[in-house]
Amino acid sequence: MTGDQALRATPAPAARAAELDAADPLRAHREKFLTGPDDDVLAYLDGNSLGRPLAASAARLDDFVRTQWAGRLIRGWDEGWLDLPLHVGDRIGRTCLGAAAGQTVVGDSTTVLLYKLVRAAVDLRPGRDELVVDTDNFPTDRYVVEGVAAERGLTVRWVESDPAAGVEPADLAPAMSERTALVVLSHVAYRSGHLAPARELTRLVHDAGALVLWDLSHAVASVPVELDAWEVDLAVGCTYKYLNGGPGAPAFAYVAARHLDAFRQPVQGWLGRADPFAMAAGYTPAPGIRRVLSGTPPVLSMLALQDMLDLLEEVGMPAVRTKSALLTAFAADLAREQLAPLGVVLASPADPARRGAHLTLEHPAFRALTPRLWAQGVIPDFRSPQGLRLGLSPLSTSFAEVATGVAAVRDLLAEQA
């Protein structure tokens, strides 16, 4: 068969998408997510920035306002609200992180929790004066590391990483030494979607006597994570991407049980103190993971998050991971067929097993084309300098959306050319 004959024999993208959607064992769950009243979105390809809301969350929020907030008022704090960060944290740990109870807590933003954990980690490794982070890690991670280094008189050791890939053991090894206190890495790279070999990298850090902090923001609820089995020290992640907690939903922090007794966080708020309602002089940290808390728990923001955890517990992370790999593989295939002839380059690992639930395409025209795509109801994400990021949330994204989105990109590029 000639190349032209093979191309003609390949089913059209829409037909292939229809076949994949029909065979998708998770397809029925898409109906559990809400769409807008005007339903003007043809392809939502930014689930790794903000997940769609679940219909159950609308009902839960309404019920909470009417019955718990209005009905119980301040009594709600004694009736369960104060313990929500621990309860929801344990659920995230059990469902998504491979973490036993008592090691995960919800509260604050990702940035604030990163700061707390980085500062505490420095104190857990006294006498060591270097913090290690890669040059293409998410900006917040880099900024927090630089800020803590400046506060504590430490040195930042930079690992050069390829923006189209991510950190591998060979990249990290030269940066490790007896001076290393903490290494901060992302399990799934925010730009390329590279899935880091977390077990191997964690072992490499421990061989140097240092601690590792994993940012799981683009990994949690999209790829399996096994923090306890990997012997991870610390982790943090947001809940508004694949955990669908909603805009501004709080982050979570994981501190391995072996470190909790010595863990001293730098933001000493009253709810992280032992017996906070004693209002006593001096700060004595609460036992266990509660000591990571500082102020009042974000109760409203934890409501929608619980609905997504219900769904994830029903489906299971292996099924989610299978779907995410199929989605990114389909998107990459379409990009190779339809966009590569127009100059588009895949800026992510080619192997679906080596990336999370998103991938990035690059072309000089993408900055200008992104607003036009949004106006058409095709919603990807732009990442400077020329990356179009496709975030494919496994439980809410259809293969048809992927086909529609890639076709829209093709049409606009062709029109410009």
TrEMBL record:
Enzyme Commission designation: 3.7.1.3
One MF annotation (Gene Ontology) recorded for this entry: kynureninase activity
InterPro entries in UniProt: Kynureninase, PyrdxlP-dep_Trfase, PyrdxlP-dep_Trfase_major, PyrdxlP-dep_Trfase_small
Pathway: Amino-acid degradation; L-kynurenine degradation; L-alanine and anthranilate from L-kynurenine: step 1/1; Cofactor biosynthesis; NAD(+) biosynthesis; quinolinate from L-kynurenine: step 2/3
Catalytic reaction equation(s): L-kynurenine + H2O = anthranilate + L-alanine + H(+); 3-hydroxy-L-kynurenine + H2O = 3-hydroxyanthranilate + L-alanine + H(+)
Start and end residues of each stretch annotated as Disordered: 1-21
Record Pfam families: KYNU_C
Keyword Hydrolase tagged: yes
Subunit structure: Homodimer.
Family in the record: Belongs to the kynureninase family.
Name of the protein in question: Kynureninase
Organism: Microlunatus capsulatus
